[in-house]
């Protein structure tokens, strides 16, 4: 059994802040925990526009608080984001998250993130595995 709090993760190597300062991700469960997925609490700053593309991962996002928009850059379709909204990037869609207010969400990745990944110039996490 694993029990963790986001408080104990804060300011550790599991607490990742984007280079541009737009978001912060607390990695609660990682690949090294060997459960087949990773779980992150992510906060995106109000007034920011963030481009992502998870070419190597499927991501499910559950928005807890805040408002914004999600743009599917593959289709041009835009979706409103608000509390209790879920989106699933099961087709590795290139997407843009615009935060009207601060967004707080929980994200699940498969395969799991190991913890030290950062987005490249295309917003992609490399596929890193744990032995």
Automatic annotation (TrEMBL):
Keywords: Lyase. Gene3D superfamilies: Jelly Rolls. Pathway: Amine and polyamine biosynthesis; ectoine biosynthesis; L-ectoine from L-aspartate 4-semialdehyde: step 3/3. Coiled coil: none annotated. InterPro entries: Ectoine_synth, RmlC-like_jellyroll, RmlC_Cupin_sf. It is an enzyme of class 4 (lyase). One of its GO terms (biological process) is ectoine biosynthetic process. One of its GO terms (molecular function) is ectoine synthase activity. The gene is ectC. Belongs to the ectoine synthase family. It catalyses: (2S)-4-acetamido-2-aminobutanoate = L-ectoine + H2O. Catalyzes the circularization of gamma-N-acetyl-alpha,gamma-diaminobutyric acid (ADABA) to ectoine (1,4,5,6-tetrahydro-2-methyl-4-pyrimidine carboxylic acid), which is an excellent osmoprotectant. Its EC number is 4.2.1.108. It comes from the Bacteria. This is L-ectoine synthase. It comes from Williamsia herbipolensis.
């Amino acid at each position: 059994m694993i029990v963790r709090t986001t408080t104990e993760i804060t300011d550790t190597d599991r607490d990742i802040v984007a280079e541009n300062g737009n978001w912060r991700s607390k990695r609660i469960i990682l690949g090294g925990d060997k459960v087949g997925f990773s779980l992150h609490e992510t906060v995106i700053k109000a007034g920011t526009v963030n481009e992502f593309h998870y070419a190597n991962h499927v991501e499910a996002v559950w928005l807890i608080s805040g408002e914004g928009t999600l743009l599917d850059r593959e289709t041009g379709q835009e979706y409103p984001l608000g509390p209790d909204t879920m989106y699933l990037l099961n087709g590795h869609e290139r997407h843009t998250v615009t935060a009207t207010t601060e967004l707080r969400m929980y994200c699940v990745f498969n395969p799991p993130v190991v913890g030290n990944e950062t987005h490249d110039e295309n917003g992609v996490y490399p596929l890193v595995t744990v032995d």
